[in-house]
Amino acid sequence: MDYDGPVLDNHLHLNPESGKGLEAVREFAHMGGTHLLVVNLPSWHLGDVPESEADFRPGFETTVETVGTASEELPGRAWPVLGVHPGLVSELVDAGLDADEAAELMCAGLDVAAEYVADGRALALKTGRPHYDVSDAVWEASNAVLRHGLELGAREDCAVQLHTEATEGLTDVAQWAEDAGLAPERVVKHYAAGELAGVTPSVMSEKDRLERAADSGRAFLMETDFVDDPERPGAVLGPKTVPRRVRWLVESGHEDAVRRAHVETPRDVYGVDTEETL
Predict the structure, then answer these.
(1) 10 Å Cβ neighbour count for 71?
(2) 208 close to 194: Cβ distance less than 8 angstroms
(3) Alpha-carbon distance 56 to 43, whole Å?
């Protein structure tokens, strides 16, 4: 393909213990990928359900270490995104906590993640709310966790990635971000459709979604949500997908959209220069 600029996968996971780990990074780079945002795996995927804020640290440390090694395999580099998966609320409630107690522990986990942002070891935070049906109490508690994440993003001057329900509008969250002092464009909905009102979409790299995003003329990012789980080999999209879709977009005449997704939006959302780091 004619495009030789940065190629960023905005949201994927790496499991160095039981998944592909660095092999997935090599596959990404071999296809033309240059930069990665690596999100820590859900805490219960790495061990027991957390019981205290200290229990979040091992997973964060693993992600930071993995990102450091991944950067050595890339023409560009990787960055960690750390936080708390919103599905943890259900794990905690199933373990005997009430919704408010679960939210308190999840907020503590976000506080730990914010420490990594503060000292420069992580680029952004991750939080959200369940994408499945929950009780009113769990929904309210989850929104409290989400808002806490936005407050931390404002405090640390960093972007916040969200895992939420499927939607093409998060204007409520955009308002919460503004109320917290965080620009809504620095809030990113992962696993987004082609267009999204309120915050920045991180678009799943399926052709129909990407066509909508490219045609919209608006800011967007591209992702795979690669889960790196050997027991779910076909889940979501593989690590080669974003470079392949970039090639397809360029061949389809969308080079401006590619630059928007891989240079301009990463700069505006995360404050990173994907060209300078190539």
Answers:
(1) 17
(2) yes
(3) 7
Task: Quote the DSSP letter at residue 232.
Answer: -
pTM: 0.97
Cα–Cα distance between 42 and 203 in angstroms, integer?
21
- Quote the percentage of the chain above a pLDDT of 70: 99
**For residues 21-50, average pLDDT:** 92
On the question of pLDDT at 258 being above 60, the answer is yes
Residue 1's pLDDT is 52
Q: Which structural domain, as residue segments, surrounds residue 234?
A: 8-83+158-270
**For the domain that residue 185 is a member of, what is the CATH number?**
3.20.20
Q: What tokens does 24 get?
A: 């997935």
Strand partners, 36: 9, 78
Mean pLDDT of 77-93: 97
CA angle in degrees (0–180, nearest 5) for 238-242-246: 150
Number of structural domains the chain divides into:
1
Whether 142 is covered by a domain: the verdict is no
